[in-house]
Design brief:
This protein has eleven helices and 14 strands. The chain is of the alpha/beta class. It folds into two domains: about 130 residues, Response regulator (Rossmann fold, 3-Layer(aba) Sandwich); about 140 residues, Rossmann fold. Helix 2 crosses helix 10, helix 3 packs parallel to helix 4 and helix 7 crosses helix 8. The chain is elongated, with a radius of gyration of 21 Å. The structure holds alpha-D-fucopyranose (FCA). GO terms for molecular function: carbohydrate binding.
Length: about 350
């Protein structure tokens, strides 16, 4: 389970395996004694994204270490999320970790969890109620502001190192502002670029409609058509897929690693890109450890169920830059590749 091979056949299999645990005969149809083995679920909005597969890997590690069971399921929309909570309750879960497909589902998810007597720990995307974070629900995630800032600082440093002329350069900021963690990352990245001397009129926001490579590709393509005179691009976005989509759009218009530089966030969804023999405009990524976040969130939930120890309400992780030069070494050290 430790090797990357576990991830490569992608989620289809993992999903089927996870779903097949839905009807656990041992757990259904009985109100008898509490089960002796703790069972939790780990629900994620985009199971096809490597980030979430690595979080699951961390959850599996915690499960093996503490001896609990973890059901890993994809919840791509609100309806699926609420019905999955019913399913896992029937299957005997005592709580779940969740990265919700929509942060505004927070109150509905918490209501349902209360009805079913399930404990909840959120990861990555913090629940929102009436425009405010639900800080009463335990949250584990990346420090979006600091990681976003480092992304912008890295791009500014590359811009300076290359000696690009400001009047020929533009910043392509792939944004998804309806999600708070995404907005916090891109806002801080843009602020760092401005602090480094890139004026606001050289910074172009390209909103993505979906948080995947095609969504970012479309957003960047529109921008490239609108700003066809720009010769060099710095690319930022809320995660690796946002930057990868823009990189693909740029390559389609003839930009290369010499005329475009992108820095992602996650560090998990760009491994194949960094392995390519020829450099692409994808320069590097701010790695935040998905396995560690998955492990920590599952461990907290387990201890809460088992010993009644409530988790800390807010846990944030930092990021480090990985590039073509150092990614093998760092990802090995982080337990992400063998
Ligand atoms: C959000 C993004 C993921 C990952 C996570 C930490 O959920 O969609 O790609 O960056 O935050």
């Amino acid at each position: 389970m430790k090797s990357l091979r576990f991830l490569l056949p992608v989620l289809a299999l993992g999903l089927i395996a996870g779903c097949s645990k839905k009807s656990d005969p041992a757990a259904s149809g009985s109100t008898a004694a509490a089960p002796d083995k703790v069972k939790i679920a780990f629900l994620v909005k985009q199971p096809e994204e490597p980030w979430f597969q690595y979080e699951w890997k961390g959850a599996d590690k915690a499960a093996a270490q503490y001896g609990f069971e973890v059901m890993k399921l994809g919840v791509p929309d609100g309806e699926k999320t609420l019905s999955t909570i019913d399913t896992i309750a029937v299957a005997g879960a005592q709580g779940f970790v969740i990265c919700t497909p929509d942060v505004r589902l927070g109150p509905a998810i918490m209501n349902k969890a209360k009805q079913k007597g399930l404990k909840v720990v959120t990861v990555d995307d913090q629940f929102v109620k009436d425009g405010k974070f639900m800080t009463e629900v335990p949250y584990v995630g990346m420090s979006a502001s600091r990681i976003g800032r480092k992304q912008g600082e890295t791009l500014a440093a590359e811009f300076k190192k290359r000696g690009w002329a400001l009047e020929e350069t533009g910043v392509c900021a792939i944004t998804f502002e309806e999600l708070d963690t995404a907005r916090e990352r891109t806002d801080n990245s843009i602020a760092a670029l401005k602090d480094a001397g890139i004026p606001a009129e050289r910074i172009f926001k390209a909103p993505q409609k979906t948080t995947d490579i095609p969504g970012a590709f479309d957003a960047a393509s529109i921008l490239l058509t609108q700003q066809s005179s720009i010769k060099r691009w710095l690319i930022l976005g809320m995660n690796d897929n946002a930057v990868l989509g823009a990189v693909r759009a740029m390559e389609g218009r003839g930009f290369t690693h010499e005329t475009a530089v992108g820095v992602g966030i996650n560090g998990t969804d760009c491994i194949d890109e960094l392995r390519k023999t020829k450099p692409t405009p994808f320069f590097g990524s701010m790695l935040a450890s998905a396995p560690q976040e998955g492990f920590a969130a599952s461990e907290m939930l387990y201890k809460w169920i088992k010993d009644g120890t409530p988790p800390p309400l807010d846990t944030r992780t930092e990021g480090i830059l990985i590039t073509r030069e150092n990614f093998q070494e760092i990802l090995k050290r982080e337990g992400i590749i063998d």
